[in-house]
Amino acid sequence: MPIGAIVAIAGCIAGIIPALHVLVSALPVKHPAGILVDQLSAFFLFIILFVSALCALFAARTEKRPVTWFFFNLLVASMALTVCASDTILFLISWETMSLASFVLVIDGGARKASRDAGWIYFVATHIGTAFIIIMFMGLGAFPGANGGFATVALVCALIGFGTKAGMMPFHVWLPEAHPAAPGFVSALMSGVMIKTGIYGLLRAVTLAGGAPEWFGWLLIVAGLVSGVFGVVYALAQHDLKRLLAYHSVENIGIILLGLGTGFVGLSRGNTALAVLGLAGGLFHVLNHAVFKGLLFLGAGAVHHATGTREMDALGGLIKKMPWTAFTFLVGAVAISGLPPLNGFASEFMIYFGSFGVLRGGDMSLAGIAAVSVAGLALIGGLAAACFAKAFGIVFLGEPRTKQDQARPVTEAPPEAVLAMAVLAASCVLIALLAPLGIHLLAGPVSVVFAGGGIDIAQTKAELARAAGAYTGVAGIFALLLIFTALAALLRHVLLRGRRVEHSAVTWDCGYHLPSPRMQYTASSFAQPLVSFFRTVTGTLRAYERPTGYFPGLSRFSTRTGDLAWDKFFAPVFSAAAAQLGRLRFLQQGGIHLYVFMIMLALVALLIRVFW
Amino acid sequence: MKLELAGTIDVLIAFLLAPLLPGIINRVKAVCGGRRGQPLLQCYHDVIKLLKKGAVYSRTTSHVLRAGAVIAPAAMVAALLLLPVPGRRAVMSFTGDVVLWAYLLGVARFFTMAAALDTGSSFEGMGASREAFFSALCEPVLLLVLLLMGMHSSGGPVAALVAVALIIVLLSENSRIPFDDPNTHLELTMIHEVMVLDHGGPDFGFITYAAALKLWMYGMLFSAAAVLPVFRPEGWLPQTGVFLASMVVFAVIVGMVESLMARLRLTRVPQAILAGGALCVLAIAFALR
């Protein structure tokens, strides 16, 4: 095992214990060097360390480059420092280290042009985000406790800056480029964990700004719905497995923002239940998304490693070659679709629970927000289930869609990788079943955000305790679902005992003979009805050469889905900026003496400014 | 969370009577079409016969196909525990239980789609694709219907709008005309039936029975939406009587719709579902007034 992996795993395990201690005991840890680990930090710290350890374990056998391990460890450490920093400068330094370390991991050695381009987009996007974050800190620092105009500007800057890191639409454009380019275990880390530091930063910015006004809550709800619905619509249109997963990160950030938004609106409307359950649901989804998205990206990495391709339409039938990867991927797919009996449902249920509780309480002024979040979550859930039926079904089921390379047989991932995926899959089940016992732990992080907002920790705990009652029912049904499934399987086993069971028939082909694997449904054809329904958003381009003549030659069909935010906003803005900034090229002549001269001019100007 | 053990009787009633609903629907269709029709108990005969058979599996399939056939009925039984007969309590009830109910149906659907893709057949892939499309659009409409049904404050117009939206959703979700036609002889035009083409023997028996339970549960929702706004029956016997009568009415309505309507063109289906969503939005506007 490479030393980098050992260090990463050991470090993560060593860090998880104090993080859990802070979360459970509610005693913050402070250090004069600008470190403060309160319960919100500890919550994110736990997620970072838990998933990072498993990502390191996953790659322990396959990743051998020391450089990759160095930057992997740097990324984990800087993420941990980011959520522990209580000092602005320290926060910005660790934030920047995190961005640079992940940039190096995205370009993946820099040998492939696709990776370099993706890294470049990521580099630019993350620095635009950082620029907004610096503006926000300057605004809040210069006018502490300011309200009105300055607070508005600071909060909008926070949303853009941290939203860029989180992958919120329309600032998500780097995400579907960068995540597929990186190696599997790095994309799992980035998509499962790193983008959550954006959510963390957003929550801290709100507490720094002295709470969120109601319009900010609504802004988060709108941003959440846009990210959630369009994220999953774009995901449906993808052919590349990792790109599909990257768009699902946009979708899940949308669900998280929806939860936070309903929480902030509930807070300013004085509805404690909606406030606590919205925010707690969002935070719970941060944890759950880290677990199942980490799992899915590791699975996609294993598939890519084994087959050499991420094109779903070239894959198929992998469940026979890679049964463990397939099973754990299926668990992740059910979890991310928000379906019982797994953790994805558990966190979405908390947001539903808040909305249904509002109406049962008879507060009709909030019925609109309840209806919006319920309908939005349901649509996102339905589309996500469609998308993962496609992703799992096309990649792992059926027959291989292309000829197998005989020289390079597809085999199961190494045992370390399987162990990492199995732990994450087991976590998906355990979090869901243990939710009634565990959700009171969310009271700590929630009360850190709501400190000074008029909701104290006792009220938070009371609301979560009421939710725990419903969660007992949910977990009970989850357990019963598993038991009933086992009973039905047993019944079938008993029924079929001693009867004739044929295992080697061919699939019923409706009377056509000799079906070939190429006749199977593909990812593109599966998603076609949904994609064409949403074509105004996705702008999917189709290229089709029909077979013509009496002896038709080859025909061709392909679809390409761009990204509206990129095609219609960022690409024009950037090319315009490049054209305008090109006028400054005359300054860049390439002569060192000229640059030294310019630096000197600047120094002289500054000196004059200081001593005047 | 509240437990109501007396509710298990309603679950047993569902187990016993669910396969009767397709029988009534088919009889109504037959009478409307001037035929005598299949026996009322045909679905029972089908399930029992299938459970007595052996099994044939395609060599393309994996455990996913077999899992789909056992998860579908298991999810339906779990979901049954959450639905009350109008005027009574379900076996388990808590705030937001209807959300879990809707998502349990989602689990069954997800695994049925996965089982369809497991066969590698392009027909079944097509069915799964359409099922994914329509159900994704139905999901928000269904949740809004459930939200509105839980609001109670609703008066006449709200209840009527909700009932119509519910009928649209349940016809689509139970693969009935005008959304899906289980009786065509062309695999190309079917949705639910084509997804289960490769299921046989006990597996197909499970799937058929699960579909009957699903129809029964939507009937329970219809009964709640139609009966509760008008009156709230008291006492076990009147409740059961009103409930079973409303279930027969429900089956007759579905049968009449099937007899009087043609199947919608596939491109029209999303519009019909969205119309249900529009009705829900209208109902919310009425309820907030």
What sort of overall outline of chain A do the alpha carbons produce when their principal axes are compared?
globular
Counting DSSP H or I runs of 4 or more residues, the number of helices of chain A is: 23
* Helix-strand string of chain A: HEEHHHHHHHHHHHHHHHHHHEHHEEHH
Beta-strand content bin of chain A: under 5%
Largest interface, Cβ cutoff 8 Å: A-B, 88 and 86 residues
- Distance separating the two termini of chain A: 63 Å
Low-confidence stretches of chain B: none
The number of domains of chain A is 3
> What is the mean pLDDT of chain B?
90
Quick check: average pLDDT of chain A?
89
State the helical fraction of chain A: over 70%
Summary tags:
A: 612 residues; mainly alpha; 3 domains; two-stranded antiparallel sheet; two-stranded antiparallel ribbon; globular; B: 289 residues
Which helices and strands appear, and what pairs or packs with what?
The complex is a heterodimer of chains A (612) and B (289).
Chain A: H1 3-25, E1 29-31, E2 35-37, H2 39-58, H3 66-84, H4 88-107, H5 113-142, H6 149-166, H7 175-181, H8 184-194, H9 196-208, H10 214-236, H11 241-268, H12 272-307, H13 318-321, H14 323-336, H15 343-360, H16 367-396, H17 415-438, H18 443-450, H19 457-496, E3 501-505, H20 523-533, H21 535-538, E4 541-545, E5 556-560, H22 564-581, H23 592-611
Antiparallel strand pairs in A: 1-2, 4-5
Helix pairs in contact in A: 1-2, 1-3, 2-3, 2-8, 2-12, 2-17, 2-18, 3-4, 4-5, 4-8, 5-6, 5-7, 6-9, 7-8, 7-11, 8-12, 10-11, 10-16, 11-12, 11-16, 12-14, 12-15, 12-17, 12-19, 14-16, 14-17, 15-16, 15-17, 17-19, 18-19
Chain B: E1 2-3, H1 7-17, H2 20-32, H3 42-51, E2 55-58, H4 63-80, E3 92-93, H5 97-118, H6 122-149, H7 156-173, H8 192-195, H9 201-227, H10 236-260, H11 269-288
Helix pairs in contact in B: 2-10, 3-9, 4-5, 4-9, 5-6, 6-7, 6-11, 7-9, 7-11, 9-10
